[in-house]
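F.,

This is the one I mentioned.
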C-alpha cells in the first residue's frame, strides 16, 4: 500500500480552510466551492504521485513555498468562478493574486539558499504559474474580450503540440527574456483585473501581454524547429496529465541519478516545455 505524504495533504487541508474562510467573509457559490476544491484535490493527488515516483517522503522548503502559492491560486480560482454569477470581490481577489505572484520570486531564492532545487519543484512551480495566468485570463475576459483567453491557453497549446510533434519536446536553453515575459503576464493581467483603468487602456495592456507571449513562444518554437535534427530531445515524451490546467507534476519521469540544471536567473532547475 502506498504511503501518504503529509505535505500534499496539508496543502489540501489549507486549501479547504481558505475556501471556508472566503465563503464566510466574501461569499462563495457552489460552483466556486467546487472549482477551488477540485483544484486542491488534483494538486494533492498530483504531488503525491510526483513524490512517490521519486521516492521522496516530503516536500522541500522551496516546494512548500510553491504549495502556499498554489493554495492562494485555488482561492483565486474559487473567487473567479463565483464571479460568473455576480461581481467578483476584487478587494480580496487582487491582493490574493498579488501575494501569489510575489511568492513566485521567493521559492527560487529558497531553493538556492537551501540547495533543494529539483525537477519536481520546478515543474510544480511552472504549472502553478500557468494555471494562475489561465484563471486571470478568464477573469478579465468580460472586460477585454474572449481573445485574451489566448494568454492563458498558449502554454497548454504548446504542450499539446508536443504530443503531436516530437521535435517540440526538445530541451530549451535558458533565456532571460522568457523569464521577463513570464513575470510580465501576471503583472499586466493583475492590473487589468483590478479594473482601475479605462477599458481602452486595459485592452492595450492585455494586447501587450499577448504580443510578448506570442513572441516568446514563437522564438522557442523556432529554436526547437531549427535544432530538431542537430539536438535530439533529451526528455521523456509528456503524458496527457502534463497538459491538464492544474499543477500536473506527476507526469514527470523519475531521474534520481541526474542533478537538475539550475536556471541562473530564477535559481530553480530549468525544465523543458517552459516557453514563457
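My design for it:
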Amino acid at each position: 500500500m502506498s504511503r501518504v505524504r503529509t505535505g500534499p495533504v496539508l496543502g489540501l487541508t489549507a486549501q479547504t480552510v481558505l475556501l471556508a474562510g472566503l465563503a464566510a467573509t466574501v461569499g462563495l457559490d457552489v460552483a466556486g466551492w467546487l472549482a477551488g476544491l477540485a483544484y486542491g484535490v488534483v494538486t494533492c493527488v498530483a504531488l503525491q504521485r510526483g513524490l512517490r515516483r521519486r521516492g521522496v517522503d516530503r516536500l522541500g522548503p522551496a516546494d512548500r513555498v510553491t504549495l502556499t502559492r498554489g493554495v492562494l491560486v485555488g482561492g483565486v480560482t474559487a473567487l473567479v468562478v463565483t464571479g460568473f454569477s455576480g461581481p467578483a470581490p476584487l478587494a480580496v481577489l487582487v491582493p490574493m493574486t498579488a501575494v501569489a505572484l510575489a511568492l513566485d520570486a521567493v521559492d527560487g531564492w529558497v531553493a538556492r539558499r537551501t540547495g533543494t532545487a529539483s525537477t519536481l519543484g520546478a515543474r510544480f512551480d511552472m504549472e502553478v504559474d500557468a494555471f494562475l495566468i489561465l484563471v486571470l485570463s478568464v477573469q478579465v475576459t468580460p472586460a477585454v474580450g474572449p481573445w485574451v483567453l489566448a494568454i492563458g491557453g498558449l502554454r497548454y497549446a504548446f504542450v499539446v503540440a508536443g504530443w503531436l510533434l516530437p521535435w517540440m519536446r526538445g530541451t530549451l536553453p535558458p533565456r532571460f527574456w522568457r523569464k521577463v515575459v513570464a513575470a510580465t503576464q501576471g503583472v499586466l493581467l493583475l492590473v487589468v483585473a483590478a479594473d482601475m483603468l479605462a477599458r481602452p487602456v486595459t485592452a492595450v495592456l492585455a494586447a501587450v501581454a499577448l504580443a510578448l507571449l506570442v513572441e516568446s513562444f514563437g522564438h522557442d518554437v523556432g529554436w526547437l524547429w531549427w535544432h530538431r535534427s542537430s539536438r535530439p530531445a533529451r526528455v521523456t515524451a509528456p503524458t496527457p496529465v502534463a497538459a491538464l490546467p492544474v499543477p500536473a507534476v506527476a507526469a514527470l519521469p523519475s531521474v534520481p541519478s541526474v542533478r537538475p540544471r539550475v536556471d541562473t536567473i530564477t535559481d530553480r532547475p530549468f525544465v523543458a516545455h517552459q516557453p514563457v
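Residues 6-251 form one domain.

Talk soon.
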